[in-house]
Amino acid sequence: MGKRKIKTERRPEILDAALAIAAERGLDAVSMRTVAERVGVTPMALYGYFEGKDALLDALVGLLLSDLPAPDPSAPWEERLELIANGARDTARRHPAVFPLLFSRPSVTPAAVLVVDLLYQALLDAGVPEAHVPRVERLVSTFVLGFAVSEAGGRFSAGSADARSRRGGPEPGHLPAHHRLAAHLDAAVDWDAEFRADLEDLMWTIKAAAARGTG
């Protein structure tokens, strides 16, 4: 028996509906039933476009990643990585409810595989030994996605940066490192500047990985 043919003509509309439901009610509210209701079809009709919820979620991951800017392959590898990283951060800001899927879904869609390939190529061009490229790519992706998810989800909000409330007790012996760093912890944070600085540190890490391979 041949594999069932998946329809495509209404897939963009269906994915937009899933994004809207996630934005309004959270990712847990996205189901075949709720999406079918949003686009005005029966749940069974939706299975003509997606084999199930997992396929729908994978398609959402692909949609998010297809939104990332495509770097010029002739540009320096640092510029290519920076463009992808900033693009991921922008996408997380636009779709904070759905972006965490990138942590939980495998990179199986064409768009996802393409992004990983672009990262692989940038790391190869940086001189990272082939055997270490997959590991370093995971390092890069985990940092970029983690920062983007944390920022979009509110972990980096002004409230969470209130180090005074975290220090708790007034005694210097209580959380001594917090007391020592008080002036720095209580300072306002420019998240754009911090992301740029973190990317610079990440570039140094990549260069170190490349240097170890040539030593």
UniProtKB/TrEMBL annotation:
Tell whether Transcription regulation is among the UniProt keywords. Answer: yes
Q: Which UniProt keywords apply?
A: DNA-binding, Transcription, Transcription regulation
Record's Gene3D superfamilies? Answer: Homeodomain-like, Tetracycline Repressor, domain 2
Question: From which source organism is this entry?
Answer: Sphaerisporangium corydalis
> What does the record give as the DNA-binding region?
31-50
Q: Which InterPro entries match?
A: Homeodomain-like_sf, HTH-type_TetR-like_transc_reg, HTH_TetR, Repressor_TetR_C, Tet_transcr_reg_TetR-rel_C_sf
Q: In its keyword annotation, does this UniProt entry include Transcription?
A: yes
Q: Which portions of the sequence form the region Disordered? A: 158-177
Q: Which PROSITE patterns match?
A: HTH_TETR_2 (PS50977)
Query: Where would I find the HTH tetR-type domain in this sequence?
Result: 8-68
What name does the UniProt record give this protein? TetR/AcrR family transcriptional regulator
